[in-house]
Q: What sequence folds into this?
């Protein structure tokens, strides 16, 4: 009887919502007379592009947003986060970064819960205090770990910018010496080269072509970075564009200064690693050498004592 009732209900629903028997909605009546707006171009990035943040927002909804606001209130430092995100050069907002911190915190909490469960099963009993502290440590470690990883990303990008700066500066100097204007030289260098610095200059040139003055677009690049050589480089470009001053020699001098600074950093790094290399020499190689030198004598002394 129950199966017959379910079958009858299903058949009734199918007949009710079948196209011949379904009532026509107002939207369907007006659709032939109203033209829809054309879909946006795929080349234009939007906030509704598929990704991890969009998926999390659709699944978790208000809960993840409340968690992000709570993390923002507890951790603070929105200005520092905004500055590092700008230095990273991405489109990530502070709210998106807080959501990623919540996700990392959730993953850390899950990992800590798994570790606590495995430890409890292995020990045969559950220590509530230890498990709670471990879960809290996993949650805080995930939230703070995302902030640490952002700092590492910024440092790595700044190292790439410094490594690419001398080559880009000399290419610009060569183009300017050949008779091109600073704007044309920037366009040529960004078209022929790649890397983080070329991408930054290309983005500034794109904003200038979109209507923003080139001086303002380059100034935005200088404001986002914390590297003093790159800021001086942008200032030299701005002065050359605004006042028409010679630029080639200035760019070559800046490239030489950056190369000298790179050599100094390499020597300092080598000095620090030289001190670190003394640890295995003193605590591993030297004791083994002394042992090999004294072992035959010790064997002889022991044999004579017998």
A:
């Amino acid at each position: 009887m129950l199966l017959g009732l379910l079958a009858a209900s299903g058949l009734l629903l199918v007949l009710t919502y079948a196209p011949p028997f379904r009532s026509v909605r107002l939207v369907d009546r007006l659709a032939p007379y109203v033209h829809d707006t054309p879909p946006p171009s795929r080349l234009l990035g939007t906030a509704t592009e598929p990704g991890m943040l969009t998926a999390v927002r659709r699944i978790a909804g208000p809960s993840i947003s409340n968690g992000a606001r709570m993390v923002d209130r507890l951790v603070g430092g929105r200005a520092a986060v905004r500055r590092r995100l700008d230095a990273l050069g991405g489109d990530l907002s502070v709210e998106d970064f807080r959501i990623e911190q919540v996700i990392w915190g959730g993953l850390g909490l899950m990992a800590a819960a798994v570790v606590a469960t495995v430890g409890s099963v292995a020990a045969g009993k559950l220590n509530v205090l230890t498990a709670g502290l471990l879960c809290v440590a996993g949650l805080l470690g995930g939230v703070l770990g995302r902030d640490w990883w952002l700092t590492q990303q910024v440092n790595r990008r700044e190292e790439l910018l410094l490594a690419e700066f001398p080559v880009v500066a000399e290419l610009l100097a060569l183009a300017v010496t050949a008779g091109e204007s600073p704007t044309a030289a920037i366009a040529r260098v960004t078209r022929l080269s790649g890397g983080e610095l070329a991408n930054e200059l290309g983005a500034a040139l794109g904003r200038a072509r979109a209507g923003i003055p080139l001086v303002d677009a380059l100034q935005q690049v200088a404001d986002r970075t914390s590297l003093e050589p790159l800021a001086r480089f942008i200032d030299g470009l701005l002065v050359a564009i605004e006042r028409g001053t010679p630029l080639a020699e200035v760019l070559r001098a800046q490239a030489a200064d950056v190369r000298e600074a790179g050599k100094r950093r390499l020597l300092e790094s080598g000095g620090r690693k030289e001190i670190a290399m003394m640890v295995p020499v003193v605590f591993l190689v030297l004791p083994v050498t002394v042992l090999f030198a004294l072992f035959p004598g010790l064997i002889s002394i022991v044999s004579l004592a017998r």
Q: What stands out?
A: The chain has a mean pLDDT of 79.
